[in-house]
């Protein structure tokens, strides 16, 4: 490159500004892509940059570093780095030089070299040698870029094949339509859900294969208008499969547009949730039956229970003097068990209603909530342990239900620590990751952790009713409330060393 280097040094020393102006004007005339980024920048500033670039070109050819610098730049090039302007050496006024600009640089360099040739030499052989060295320099640079481009295209092709494979094997149905609503994409998920093979539907009107159970032409037109106007549309309803089966689908459609924003088709995905729908229907029916059962419990069972309790009270009031001690004891057992049965009915009804109650959540001061719980608790509990309450985190909860949670946990803590000489109950909280964890700890009788799995089951008790009263429903109610708040609950304990119940509420 010695002849080219000498010639460029001649231009640099004698015609640098003219050469810089010439290359800049050619870049404008040829509509070099790089120039689009320079709109609004004064011509004189661009001329100064053109002179700097030309000087760098001459110096790097003379030092035999031009090719190495271009190779290094090309090896680093990627669409992402170019878009993010992560190549400092490839920036001019903050605009990134793109690989396609190389072709324009070569054309401009060649014109510039030819323009000043007559001022440097009249020897045809020397002129041809200089041009040949310039051609060799740019040819090698472009060869490296083309190799990279081909590899990039090959990688892009592999990615397209991979994406197509993933699309085809998606579990959900994927349906593509052109603007005339003819099928352009029909993956295996669509085949499995609706039964139609790809070759049966491709290129044909979609309404022949995706048929609603109660199809109405106006609804289809309305859906098309909505997805075209708003860009998306979704529905949940019954469709008819090829074999006549009714399938319940969750359908979502989006409009596909070209670079100019014009619709060119539609993409739809659909999920078969027939089994979930049937399960939901069955659950709804079960809830209705449970409501009927709850009504029966509330009215039909309470009537004889009230009669038993009422007659027992009448016997006690009118005939107590005629009963011996054993008779009085038996009468007391009847009244006690009638009262216990009434409490059990109340707890069962409360437990069944929780599944249907909607949460009314608001940010609550948990310290104030606990204070209210303690006031209610002291009205019913004879034991008065030492209760220590920390600075509790606020939480977004249903006040009434969370009051029930704290009441049940605190009443248990008070009850099971009541036989201790110095009963102690502690309430505190901590924020961890994306949740707030509340703890109610006591120093009571505790329990063996191998039975912890029974704690939150209905009617499950770890201590006999002779030792501690209760229906065995309280913790089941607590667990259901916490789960409705999308939290979790667990316990830690040791026999004779107390127990700690932890529950979490998602942090806001």
Give a description of the structure.
This protein is of the alpha+beta class and 508 residues long. It is 54% helix and 17% strand. It has helices spanning 2-14, 16-29, 43-62, 66-76, 79-83, 101-115, 117-120, 124-168, 188-194, 198-201, 217-230, 274-319, 325-354, 366-380, 399-416, 474-484, and strands at 91-92, 95-96, 173-177, 183-186, 211-212, 232-240, 246-257, 263-272, 361-364, 386-389, 395-398, 424-432, 435-442, 489-493, 499-506. The strands form four sheets. It has a six-stranded antiparallel sheet. A five-stranded mixed sheet has the order 10-12-13-15-14. A two-stranded antiparallel sheet has the order 1-2. The radius of gyration is 41 Å and the shape is elongated. The model is unreliable at 78-91 and 462-468 (pLDDT under 50).
Helix proportion range:
40-55%
Low-confidence stretches: 78-91, 462-468
- Structure annotation, total helices: 16
Determine the strand fraction and express it as a percent band: 15-25%
The protein's oligomeric status is single chain
Distance between the termini: 68 Å
**pLDDT averaged residue by residue:** 78
How large is the radius of gyration?
Answer: 41 Å
- Major sheet: order of its strands? 4-3-8-7-6-5
Shape: elongated
């Amino acid at each position: 490159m010695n002849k080219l280097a000498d010639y460029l040094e001649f231009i640099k020393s004698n015609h640098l500004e003219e050469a810089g102006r010439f290359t800049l004007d050619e870049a404008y005339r040829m509509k070099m892509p790089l120039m689009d980024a320079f709109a609004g920048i004064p011509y004189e500033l661009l001329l100064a940059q053109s002179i700097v670039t030309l000087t760098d070109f001459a110096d790097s050819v003379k030092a035999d570093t031009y090719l190495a610098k271009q190779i290094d730049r090309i090896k680093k090039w990627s669409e992402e780095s170019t878009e993010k302007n992560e190549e400092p050496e490839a920036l001019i006024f903050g605009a990134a030089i793109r690989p396609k600009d190389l072709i324009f640089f070569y054309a401009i360099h060649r014109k510039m070299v030819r323009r000043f040739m007559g001022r440097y030499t009249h020897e045809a052989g020397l002129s041809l040698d200089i041009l040949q060295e310039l051609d060799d320099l740019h040819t090698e640079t472009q060869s490296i870029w083309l190799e990279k481009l081909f590899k990039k295209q090959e990688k892009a092709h592999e990615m397209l094949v991979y994406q197509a494979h993933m699309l085809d094997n998606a579990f959900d149905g994927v349906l593509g339509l052109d603007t005339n609503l003819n099928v352009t994409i029909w993956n295996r998920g669509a085949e499995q859900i609706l039964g139609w093979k790809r070759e049966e539907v491709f290129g044909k009107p979609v309404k022949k294969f995706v048929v609603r159970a109660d199809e109405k032409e106006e609804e289809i037109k309305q859906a098309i208008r909505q997805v075209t106007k708003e860009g998306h549309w979704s529905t949940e309803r019954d469709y008819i499969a090829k074999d006549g089966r009714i399938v319940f689908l969750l359908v979502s459609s989006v409009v596909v547009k070209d670079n100019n924003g014009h619709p060119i088709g539609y993409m739809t995905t659909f999920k078969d949730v027939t089994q979930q729908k049937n399960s939901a229907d069955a659950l709804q029916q079960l809830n209705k039956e449970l409501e009927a059962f709850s009504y029966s419990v509330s009215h039909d069972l309470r009537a004889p229970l009230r009669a038993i309790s009422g007659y027992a009270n009448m016997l006690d009031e009118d005939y107590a003097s005629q009963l011996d001690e054993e008779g009085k004891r038996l009468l007391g057992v009847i009244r006690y068990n009638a009262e216990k049965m009434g409490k059990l009915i109340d707890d069962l009804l409360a437990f069944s209603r929780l599944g249907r109650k909607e949460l009314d959540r608001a940010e609550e001061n948990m310290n104030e909530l606990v204070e209210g719980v303690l006031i209610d608790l002291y009205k019913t509990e004879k034991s008065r342990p030492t209760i220590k309450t920390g600075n509790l985190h606020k939480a977004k909860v249903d006040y009434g239900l969370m009051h029930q949670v704290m009441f049940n946990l605190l009443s248990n803590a008070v009850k099971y620590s009541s036989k201790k000489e110095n009963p102690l109950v502690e309430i505190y909280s901590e924020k961890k990751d994306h949740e707030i964890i509340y703890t109610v700890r006591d120093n009571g009788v505790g329990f063996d952790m191998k039975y912890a799995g029974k704690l939150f089951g209905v009617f499950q008790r770890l201590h006999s009713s002779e030792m501690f009263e209760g229906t065995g429903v309280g913790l089941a109610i607590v667990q259901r409330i916490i789960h409705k708040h999308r939290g979790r609950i667990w316990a830690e304990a040791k026999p004779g060393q107390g127990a700690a119940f932890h529950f979490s509420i998602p942090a806001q």
